[in-house]
Amino acid sequence: MKKIITILSFAMGLTSLVGCSDYLDSDYLFDERMTIEDVFSNRDYTNRWLARGYAYLSNGYLQDVCSKRDYPFNFADDMYYGD
Asked: Where does the source fall among the domains of life (predicted)?
């Protein structure tokens, strides 16, 4: 039993010494992201940004907001009263 406790304490000691800072370093993933100024300075990027926003409305992500179907929580009353 003493041998098992020694092995477990040794294993726990080794795992506490190992750092994960390199694993959690994710700055390199976001280096090439565009800023808002970059998006709206180019007409093509702006059109892509706008098309992506409208695509979310038609994919079913926001059906409770932008649909005339029978959803229990339809928050867009202009869909019914704006026609």
From this structure: Bacteria
Vertex 41, ends 26 and 50: CA angle to 5°?
Answer: 80
Task: Tell me the pLDDT tens digit for each residue of 29-69.
Answer: 777 788 889 889 999 999 999 998 887 776 666 666 656 66
Q: What pTM did the predictor assign? A: 0.42
* Residues with Cβ within 8 Å of residue 74, at least 6 apart in sequence: 64, 65, 67, 68
- How many whole angstroms separate alpha carbon 62 and alpha carbon 74? 10
Question: Max alpha carbon distance in the chain (Å)?
Answer: 79
Q: Where are the domains of the chain?
A: 2-81
